[in-house]
Design a protein that fits this description.
Blueprint (H helix, E strand, L loop, with lengths): L11 H13 L5 E2 H7 L14 H16 L5 E3 L12 E3 L15 H17 L3 H12 L22 H10 L1 E7 L8 E13 L2 E7 L6 E5 L8 E6 L7 H15 L1 E6 L4 H7 L5 E2 L5 E4 L3 H9 L5 E5 L1 H17 L2
Antiparallel strand pairs: 1-3, 2-3, 4-5, 4-8, 5-6, 6-7, 9-11, 9-12, 10-11
């Protein structure tokens, strides 16, 4: 097996997802060794004849995490080995993970859920997760198709996400065209990817410029070309780059605030009040935080007459510009 340092990095959420998927795929459950040797996120570090103590501790932590998320993970004795703790089997009983019996969907809602599940099934499972299912089948475990219906959610990711994720695994330098709202033409960027992070529902790339060594954060939705792997690799600096990137984005978020008047009882009032760090002012206005003035202006303009930006002036102008453009387009 290649050294751990050369193994692809598996995000914790993908490891937990793969664990849940595997445990849902069998009625009889899986032993710890079956899990560690087959499930994405564990198998990369698993040694058939070596010491797996660290990996077992990671599995114990993951069990606690998915239970904290409300997943009904349980342990059962292996057939014919009652009381043998070394061969305990882990599973997620489907009956305990079903929707409550009193929840019903209309035919239209069922159709939409089925369509969403189809898209999720095709686009959300990574190649590694698909290979994990095949490996489970090779052990005699037959995952049923309904397993995929337990999470019929769409993972809306920009086209740049997967190639950047691949570049991260390979420590590969990449090149792409990036368009800022203030610029007429996209600029070619060459960077060393350090982390992919999600902040306020949007995906960002945290990367380092090879020449200057400066770190920058790029919004994936503003990458307007294909991701090109240059064929050159780099040694990433030591540190938790994802945590650092999120901290920097939080600093930007906290440093930008706006005061907005909102019509009571409207969709805008409900949704904006639920935004992170929203404060209701004594006069009924909301104080809101944001990271990117252009993205926030798009959001506020979508509420139409339900909102009125009081400050800052730049945000007010940006929202007015979008409303004027919309009115002109539909004159």
């Amino acid at each position: 097996m290649p050294p751990a340092s050369t193994q692809p990095r598996v995000p914790v959420e993908e490891r937990l997802f793969s664990l849940v998927l595997a445990l849902l795929a069998t009625e009889t459950g899986l032993t710890k060794s079956e899990i560690l040797s087959t499930v994405q996120g564990y198998r990369q570090k698993y040694s058939i004849s070596g010491d797996n103590a660290n990996l077992e501790r990671q599995f114990e932590r993951d069990k606690d995490d998915i239970r904290d998320l409300g997943v009904p993970l349980e342990t059962v004795d292996s057939p014919g080995q009652v009381g043998n703790n070394h061969n305990l089997r882990y599973r997620i009983p489907r009956g305990a993970y079903d929707l409550p019996a009193d929840i019903r969907f209309s035919p239209e809602e069922t159709t939409l859920l089925n369509l969403a599940a189809m898209v999720w099934r095709e686009g959300s499972l990574s190649g590694e997760s698909r290979r994990a299912i095949l490996k489970l089948r090779s052990l005699g475990v037959t995952p049923d198709e309904p397993v995929l219906g337990y999470a019929p959610s769409l993972r809306v990711r920009e086209a740049a996400f997967e190639p950047l994720s691949t570049a991260l695994e390979k420590n590969a330098i990449v090149r792409f065209s990036y368009l800022k709202p203030s610029e007429a033409d996209a600029q070619l960027r060459t960077v060393e990817p350090l982390a992919l992070i999600q902040h306020q529902g949007r995906w960002h790339l945290y990367a380092q410029e090879p020449e200057s060594g400066a770190t920058k954060t790029f919004l994936l939705r503003r990458i307007v070309s294909q991701i090109v792997l240059t064929g050159t690799t780099f040694i990433p600096p030591v540190g938790n780059h994802a945590a650092r990137a999120l901290e920097e984005l939080d600093d930007v978020w906290n440093s930008h605030s706006a005061v907005v008047q909102v019509e009571p009882g409207t969709d805008a009032s409900t949704r904006l009040f639920k935004r992170r760090s929203t404060t209701a002012l004594p006069n009924g206005s909301f104080e809101l935080h944001y990271s990117d003035i252009n993205i926030f202006a798009d959001e506020l303009a979508g509420f139409g007459p339900e909102v009125l930006v009081v400050s800052p002036a730049a945000l007010r102008a940006a929202v007015l510009s979008r409303l004027h453009r919309t009115a002109a387009d539909h004159a």
